[in-house]
Amino acid sequence: MEHRGEEFGPWLARQLHRMDMSQSDLAARLGLTRAAVSAWVNGRAEPREETKRSLAEVFGTNPDLVDSRTSDISTNRPLRWHHRTAHADGGREYGNAAAFAFDADVAVLAREATQNALDERLDVKAPVRVHYTLHELTGEHLSSFLAALQWDELRPHYDRAAAAEQKVSRSLRAALEELESKNSLLLLRVDDFNANGLTGPEYQDGRYAAVVRRQLDSHKQSGGRAGGSYGLGKATLWAASRFGLVLINSTLSEPHEGRTQRRVIGRLDLPWRQVDGEAFAGPAWFGEPDADPAHKDVSRSWWADEETTRRLHLERHTGEPGTSFLVVGAHDASGDAEELRDLHDKVVRSLADGFWAAMVGGVAAGPLLEARVSTFRDGAVVVPEERVDPYTRHPALSRALQAHLDGRTVDSLTAEDQVARAEVPLIVTPLKGRGRARDKGREHLAVLLLTPAADADERHSRVVCMRGNRMTITEHRPRELPLGTMPFQAVLLAGYATGRSGEDVALAEEFLRASEPPEHDRWDRTEELTSLYERGAVSRLKEFRSDVDKAVRALVGRRETKRAGGPAALRELLTWDANAGTARRTHGFPTVRGVTAHVQESGAWSVVVEVRLPLVEDPWRLTPVAKFDVRSGGRPVIGWAALEAEEHCRVEQGDLVVEPGVRRAVFRGVTDPATHPVRSGYARLVVEVQKARGGSA
Known about the structure:
Layout: H1 8-18, H2 23-30, H3 34-41, H4 49-59, H5 63-68, E1 80-85, H6 106-119, E2 128-138, H7 139-148, H8 151-162, H9 167-182, E3 184-193, H10 207-212, H11 235-239, E4 241-251, E5 263-269, E6 273-275, E7 278-289, E8 299-300, E9 302-303, H12 306-311, E10 322-330, H13 340-355, E11 369-377, E12 380-387, H14 390-393, H15 395-405, E13 420-428, E14 442-452, E15 462-467, E16 471-476, E17 488-493, H16 503-514, H17 527-532, H18 537-556, H19 568-574, E18 591-599, E19 605-612, E20 620-629, E21 637-638, E22 640-647, E23 650-652, E24 655-658, E25 664-671, E26 684-691
Parallel strand pairs: 2-11, 15-17
Antiparallel strand pairs: 1-7, 2-3, 3-10, 4-5, 4-10, 5-7, 5-9, 6-7, 7-8, 11-12, 13-14, 14-17, 15-16, 18-19, 19-25, 20-21, 20-24, 20-26, 22-25, 23-24
């Protein structure tokens, strides 16, 4: 919904600039003095209604527009790219250094962009909603988009920037060559709703300028709960673009120039370059030439129509405040997501891993975040829209947090569905110059939640740590756990994530934020921590981690919980051992991506199974296991009558062997009907791929 227009003076001043008309010219055409027009522009007076009608005639517009001032007078100012000219002192930047603060990885982008959306939540009684859209363009769809982007005007700048022997230049050359050879371009759009939008003026302080015009400007206004603090997270959007190009469409929560809908701008980050004998510094902006004499011909944001946002793939389907970022030429530099389906799944996993806690709600308050992912090719659905469900990927962790939010925790575990709660002290060191002599600091009680792990959990026996808006900061492995400790999941809530307020909460929030690097992935020594806080701040963090370990040991050692499915030792043999092995396991685990099956006349199941594998240095040795899915009790394992390798693997002694570097393997299996506890038609077949005993992977 559009708001009432802006004040008359600023609106009139901008129209005069847009029409290249002076105050004296307007006064003469209205038959008034220049002093009268100056009083209007400076806000000391406003014209009478009949004068406004005369003003509309001079401007060639409708009197209603002069009265409402909800848009500018149409002057046919064409959209164009404005490239910043080179520095007069001869300095050069061969790329945006901020973009190198993070990996060009869609998982990193999803983490940073979603964190920024959470920090900008508008209505705290409702979740902020994010929607990630992958869209591959080819053929006519690609040509239409490039035309709307004025690609022909940009191409000389890309060619010259790619000609240098610099890191960014080499990447640009590869991107241009691939665009020409494949005639394909991937767009990644990140939409948020129930967010503030890019409010504020074009060049002065505000959310808009912090994102579009500046670096290292965080401009967070979320009452101390913000996840980010460096102002670097936005750089992941540009880092994820092979062309350094991002388009933006924002719906504002507060009017700017009397408007809120479709504030559009594009920003390009390129290395220093020379085009037609003129040197350019790096960044460029796509927009409307500014008519203000102080910024003459600089491309500024404009209020786009619906057709323009559609052609630029920036359309927002509701009028709800928030922002859409379109990453042009999106890519995943990690190399583990090459196809559209792989990218879709990686974004879903990244959102679930980083923000599962923000997506969990309780009886008294709903979730902080909702997330969806969609994937298209030339407007056709490739992967249906998928809502990210925290309970699917992290069932035990989600159960633990929900029990806390609903007040259903216990002091000690006696059943598998219970959640135990304990408090862990964090001593917040005083800020330098503010503490008294021998002042150790202020105590804050963080909340530790612990529950038995789910059988499907890939990783367990860990503590997931968070603060503020409940984004996962780090995972902590407790030390010196008792032998035979049951697999568990634990959550540590600190600062505002505890759900409490008060001075100790605010102090803990600021203390932990200061201990985080730009990636916000650990609590440890940082320059900000040691420069702002008295000596001993790092020691307080070490003590905090030690106290977390003590609390975990106390909770898992109090009583043995009763679980269905047999003792823990037996369950370990029947599930994927996600925690054994070396550090290279951080690359991930093999997953079954597809199974096609039918029942033969003999009663045997015949299956073809596709397995996706992460990159590792050693061969994978895997054991396919077939089970019948039954309504109660454990799933009975059935035997194989035959196992055959189909693609990129081999069978050795009943195991699959996959060489290093292989990302996809396919095998065929036929079950042995003699091992079936019931007829095949009476049960559903489940196929698991487990680590082989003694396997090298």
